[in-house]
Specification:
alpha/beta; seven-stranded mixed sheet; 10 helices; 7 strands; binds the ligand Cc1cc(-c2n[nH]c(CCNC(=O)c3cc(-c4ccc(F)cc4)cc(O)c3O)n2)ccn1; binds magnesium ion
């Protein structure tokens, strides 16, 4: 059967990237998306904002919702301190298989735990399966209608601590209005909006950073 877009992206990474070099993998994916086929990676503009927040937080425990092809996984993992691992959840097994190969090509496989499944099922398993107490940093980049139920799930499961940072992609496009309303009006979060654009386009989008106040 015809290849998928993520599989074609992987081929582009293997052709244009340098094995073991995360920066070259990031550049190869951005080039593919700008010159061959658009794909829903966080992209270079929002990716730079992601980089700055990860660097500022310097997290010891990290969760990413929505691996897709592993672009943001590579962006985050390349910035983590030695010995720190990130857990990333992907719903689609075909995409997860591509992401594993892209993450490995970047040489970051030892810093990443990729789990296939849905956030609603997996979030309540974090403590028992991965020995997590709380997350220092969470990147929300999965199904947009799951952002709100999942932040409530984080609270209910005791996975947030005073100072936990949640960074959400696509809060304008495709949009997460209920999530935005919640974090911006809840006294338990301090939120800040970072304006940008939908990856590889001129369409307005942005990231919302929310700090849990306990
Ligand atoms: C429930 C659950 C789900 C997951 C899960 N795994 N993988 C994902 C990917 C989700 N991402 C997106 O849908 C997405 C879409 C666009 C977009 C598309 C089309 C347009 F026209 C404009 C914008 C842009 C983006 O930046 C996105 O991130 N979710 C993992 C675990 N549990
Ligand atoms: Mg996104």
């Amino acid at each position: 059967t015809r290849s998928t877009r993520p599989q074609r992206m992987l081929k582009a990474v293997q052709k244009n990237g340098t094995k073991g070099n995360p920066e070259s993998v990031i550049s190869a994916i951005d080039y593919f998306c700008k010159h061959s086929e658009w794909a829903m990676n966080v992209g270079d503009e929002k990716g730079s904002i992601l980089d700055s927040v990860v660097t500022e937080v310097n997290p010891s425990t990290v969760l990413e919702l929505g691996t897709y092809c592993g672009y943001s996984t590579v962006r985050i993992a390349r910035l983590l301190s030695p010995g720190t691992k990130l857990i990333t959840l992907e719903f689609n097994p075909v995409n997860a298989a591509v992401a594993r190969q892209i993450i490995a090509y970047a040489g970051l496989q030892d810093k990443v735990i990729l789990v296939e499944g849905s956030s609603g099922d997996l979030i309540p398993q974090m403590k028992e399966r991965f020995g997590i107490m709380t997350f220092d940093f969470i990147f929300l980049d999965h199904w947009k209608d799951r952002y709100l139920p999942d932040i409530k799930l984080f609270e209910e499961c005791g996975l947030l601590r005073k100072g936990s940072v949640l960074l959400a992609d696509n809060v304008i496009c495709p949009g997460t209005p209920e999530y935005l309303e919640y974090v911006r009006n809840s006294p338990r979060y301090e939120s800040k909006y970072y304006p940008a654009h939908l990856e590889y386009t001129k369409v307005e989008d942005g990231l919302e950073k929310s700090v849990f106040l306990g």
